[in-house]
Design brief:
Elements lengths: L9 H13 L21 E3 L11 E10 L8 E3 L2 E17 L17 H18 L10 E6 L13 E14 L2
Parallel strand pairs: 1-2
Antiparallel strand pairs: 2-4, 3-4, 4-6, 5-6
Length: 177
């Protein structure tokens, strides 16, 4: 089987193949990226910072690096050519404005939480999605993992302040000749 590249960017593959189909709103105070924009449950997810700040809460996914091992960059050679086991990292950032109302994606089932608690819950759900996709399932990745990165600074210069939480998603995939 030839697979020399992912079908889309690693960020978009993660969003489309793992995050959207395996997101459980109950793990994120009712927020659901599959909800229609304008619905109280909607959380925006994208791979660009272009629209950051237009809607809250929001989640961005960006690739930070991707590597291949060895001095040549190849793990193995077949009769069809060399192959690689690539691994990379995605930085996932959740943002929510601090305002007095609190946030809930489903007010009939969940009490509102403040922005700081919400971004923590959103990142917890991202990490849970990675757990549910730790081994090759319905994604192009061989596996997914995650860990909390260093504390991301909240934006206290914005009015209202924007609370920020992050995690790093680790992925791997095989580039086959």
């Amino acid at each position: 089987m030839t697979k020399t590249r992912l079908s889309e960017s690693a960020e978009q593959v993660f969003i489309d193949d793992a995050l959207l189909p395996d997101w459980e709103p109950a793990g994120a105070v009712g927020y659901d990226p599959s909800a229609d924009p304008g619905n109280e449950a909607f959380v925006a997810i994208g791979e660009s910072f272009e629209d950051v700040g237009e809607t809250y809460p929001s989640i961005t996914v960006q690739r930070t690096n991707e590597t291949a091992p060895g001095g040549t960059g190849y793990n193995f050679v077949t009769t069809n050519g060399p192959g690689q086991d690539r691994s990379g990292q995605l930085l996932v950032t959740a943002r929510a404005e601090a305002h007095g109302e609190g946030y809930t994606g489903d007010s009939s089932q969940y009490d509102p939480v403040d922005a700081e608690d919400l971004v923590d819950e959103l990142i917890n759900e991202v990490e849970d999605v990675c757990l549910r996709n730790a081994t090759h399932t319905d994604t192009e990745f061989n596996g997914l993992g995650s860990y909390r990165g260093a504390d991301a600074p909240n934006d206290y210069d914005a009015t209202p302040s924007v609370m920020i939480e992050q995690c790093v998603v680790i992925y791997s995939w095989s580039r086959l000749p």
